[in-house]
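User: Can you recover a sequence for this backbone? Please restate the input before giving your answer.

Assistant: Of course. Working from this structure:
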């Protein structure tokens, strides 16, 4: 990974190309890989300077140091002294598995649907660092077409139903618990997966409305039509949680409409330090140092809803 990064960095001709490279890594790396990359970049920074590149290619060392320091700083908001020991395995280009190994019967599998930015409202290693690798395996699905997974994922399935079936195949028998989690454009697919697979829990953060025009494949009822079908088969065994920023009226209305379509609990996250909490409802939780506890409860079936709401409202207390 380190050599691949250095080779790709050397091939960047502009700052924009370098930024694209860094964003791609933020959407894929595990916390251990970030730590290893930072160590290597620090080592190179402290090493004696060599001769300048005769080709005149840009030296991106300073930009790399700024980027890795910012990423490490966000990961450090977990308050943990060491990186969580997730190992990364690419299943297909847009599906990545993160696991520390061990018996899956003692773990929860979190099937995570990224938004259009190909991440979970934060860099993937930051999200992973706020979970316990001994208790969670995580599979992250990305939708390069940015169509809410309605067109499927190449190499997995041609539509959302096929993707969910393929990714969820046999998982409920292998893991102690399986849940789904999605942010922004991945919110509705996460709820879909929870209902289709009869999972223990599904969580949507800043997800779309069931009446969104992009989900009218089933007529005027939108995604509520297949959801009602799955609910009848499901017999109420799946818990659904809708999370949105307290200062994001469109997201709040989308959550309200989704709650009318399916039985779900609702949590509104407040901003911190006088700042509003808009579409990225996880940002105040991250900055407030409570994201780890929030995710633990949000992904746990039968969790304490009152404590979730207390954590979500912590920003109000910080601003007083």
């Amino acid at each position: 990974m380190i050599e691949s990064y250095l080779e790709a960095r050397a091939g960047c001709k502009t700052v924009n190309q370098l930024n694209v490279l860094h964003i791609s890594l933020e959407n894929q790396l595990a916390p251990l890989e970030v730590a290893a990359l930072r160590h290597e970049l620090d080592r190179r920074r402290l090493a004696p300077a060599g001769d300048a590149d005769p080709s005149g290619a840009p030296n991106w060392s300073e930009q790399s140091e700024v980027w890795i320091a910012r990423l490490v700083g966000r990961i450090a908001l977990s308050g943990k002294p060491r990186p969580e020991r997730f190992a990364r395995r690419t299943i297909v280009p847009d599906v990545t598995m993160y696991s520390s190994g061990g018996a899956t019967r003692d773990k929860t599998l979190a099937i995570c649907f990224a938004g259009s930015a190909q991440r979970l409202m934060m860099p993937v290693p930051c999200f992973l660092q706020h979970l316990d690798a001994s208790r969670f395996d995580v599979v992250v699905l990305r939708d390069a077409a940015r169509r809410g997974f309605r067109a499927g994922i190449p190499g997995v399935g041609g539509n959302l139903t096929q993707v969910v079936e393929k990714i969820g195949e046999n998982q409920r028998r292998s893991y102690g618990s399986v849940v789904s989690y999605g942010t922004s454009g991945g919110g509705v697919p996460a709820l879909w997966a929870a209902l289709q697979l009869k999972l223990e829990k599904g969580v949507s953060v800043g997800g779309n409305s069931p009446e969104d025009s992009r989900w009218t494949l089933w007529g005027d009822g939108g995604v509520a039509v297949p959801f009602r079908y799955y609910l009848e088969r499901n017999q109420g065994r799946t818990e659904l949680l809708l999370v949105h920023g307290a200062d994001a009226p469109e997201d709040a209305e989308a959550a309200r409409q989704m709650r009318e379509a399916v039985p779900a609990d609702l949590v509104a996250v407040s901003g911190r330090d006088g700042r509003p909490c808009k579409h990225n409802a996880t940002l105040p939780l991250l900055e407030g140092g409570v994201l780890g506890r929030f995710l633990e409860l949000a992904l746990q079936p039968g969790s304490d809803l009152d404590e979730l709401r207390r954590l979500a409202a912590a920003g109000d207390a910080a601003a007083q």
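That completes the design. Residues 108 and 177 are 5 Å apart (CA to CA).
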